[in-house]
Sequence to fold (172 residues):
Amino acid sequence: MQNKKYQPVIQSVIPAILLLVAILVVGCYKRPSINGDAGADSGSGGGGRIGQTTFTLTDIPSKYEGKYARISLVGDVVLTGAQNITSKAVTLPKISGGTVVIPLWKINSVTSFSKYNDNGNFTLGTVNLYNSGNDNINAKQKELVDAVFMSVTFTKGNATRAWKDALTVIEQ
Fold:
């Protein structure tokens, strides 16, 4: 459910935040290199090893079944989510059974990503849904819908949210 009390404020602030996140993410898709190890010790206080961190979105409406998802997260670090990132394309995970699991990548610089293997708190997360799962770096596709989440916390390398938990959903 959307919180109607904050809807006017959200609608005026969210486009600016989405634009900032989009600029950060799009700017990083220029010939990225992937480095890092999915099994590396994150160095966070848990002392254990975390595989690649994922964000799981559940209870996605059936009209988005078979579509593809990406996430952008803003906190102490900026993350982007995709199945895989190469120097020429981004491969997005597919929504199946009303759920999508999105691996996360830390944006190290304009040309470098590494698999994100940590816990943490992020003040803002935006999930974008697309028709296609392959995104050519030079030809960006337009998202179908944006779902915005506040205060996303990763524990043991994972976070899960339900579609209904979105602060707001913006149909494009």
